[in-house]
């Protein structure tokens, strides 16, 4: 019995790594899904241009992106096949959010935020002018990332090349995403930049004309007052002379 028990214990101990490898704990599976499939892609700050694939857990598909070469994450695959092999079938609801385990106490790793539509964004978060009317900015970096921006003058999305840094929020990965966020979402007519300049110049000219008109009116009034004072002085002198002549005749 002792020998048999020893052999049984040895078998259990020796097979433990195998069991853990093929049946990892739930927390390990959740962490693996999070790190390799549920996090968003990261281009990184470097300026290289490596074609890579990442798993979009919201769409449930592998999508291509350009990796800068550093500061990436594990959701970064060389081929689409490798991406699908690792993450195919993983969705936002495949495993409970990492913030809540089975007993509701596991909060060691934050969960992936659900993608929000612009309709769900509060007005103080989604700024139409910031996300849709700003001009396309390539930036000073020298990478070459194809992006889309919303052109308010054309009321449609157009493509441009993003350098990789110091851009703005009017920069989207696809035309569909750009149109979804910006097309038909303005709450009031947005004037193009050129039109704004013309309007401002027109207002400035109008204000200048009003000021010049007011100045001319003031000058005319001052001139009339001076003329009236001069005439009053002349008439006053004539009356004094007539009075002196009358007094002389009387004497």
Automatic annotation (TrEMBL):
Highest taxon listed in the record's lineage: Eukaryota
Gene3D superfamilies: Pancreatic trypsin inhibitor Kunitz domain
Entry membrane topology: Single-pass type I membrane protein
GO molecular function, one term: serine-type endopeptidase inhibitor activity
Record's keyword terms, sorted: Cell membrane, Cytoplasm, Disulfide bond, Glycoprotein, Membrane, Protease inhibitor, Repeat, Serine protease inhibitor, Signal, Transmembrane, Transmembrane helix
The keyword Cytoplasm appears for this protein: yes
Transmembrane segments annotated in the record for this chain: 197-222
Domain (BPTI/Kunitz inhibitor): residue spans on this chain: 37-87, 132-182
Cellular component GO terms held in the UniProt record: cytoplasm; plasma membrane
Subcellular location: Cell membrane; Cytoplasm
Pfam families named among the record's database cross-references: Kunitz_BPTI
PANTHER family: KUNITZ-TYPE PROTEASE INHIBITOR 2
Subunit note: Interacts with TMPRSS13; the interaction promotes the phosphorylation and cell membrane localization of TMPRSS13.
Identification of the protein by name: Kunitz-type protease inhibitor 2
């Amino acid at each position: 019995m002792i020998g048999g028990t020893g052999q049984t214990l040895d078998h259990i101990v020796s097979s433990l790594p195998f069991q853990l490898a093929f049946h990892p704990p739930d927390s390990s599976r959740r962490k693996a899904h999070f790190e390799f499939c549920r996090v968003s892609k990261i281009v990184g700050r470097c300026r290289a241009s490596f074609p890579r694939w990442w798993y979009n857990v919201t769409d449930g598909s592998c999508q291509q992106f350009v990796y800068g070469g550093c500061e990436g994450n594990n959701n970064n695959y060389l081929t689409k096949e490798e991406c699908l092999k690792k993450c195919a079938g993983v969705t936002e609801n495949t495993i409970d959010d990492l913030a809540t385990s089975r007993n509701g106490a596991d909060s060691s790793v934050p969960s992936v935020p659900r993608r929000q539509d612009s309709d769900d964004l509060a007005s103080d978060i989604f700024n139409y002018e910031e996300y849709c009317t700003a001009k396309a900015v390539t930036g000073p970096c020298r990478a070459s990332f194809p992006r889309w921006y919303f052109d308010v003058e054309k009321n449609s999305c157009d493509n441009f090349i993003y350098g990789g840094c110091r851009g703005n929020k009017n920069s989207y990965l696809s035309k569909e995403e750009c149109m979804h966020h910006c097309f038909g979402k303005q709450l009031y007519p947005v004037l193009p930049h050129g039109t704004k300049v013309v309007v401002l110049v027109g207002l400035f000219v109008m204000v200048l004309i009003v000021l010049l008109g007011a100045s001319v009116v003031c000058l005319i009034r001052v001139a009339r007052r001076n003329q009236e004072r001069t005439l009053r002085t002349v008439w006053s002198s004539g009356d004094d002379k007539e009075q002196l002549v009358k007094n002389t005749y009387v004497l």
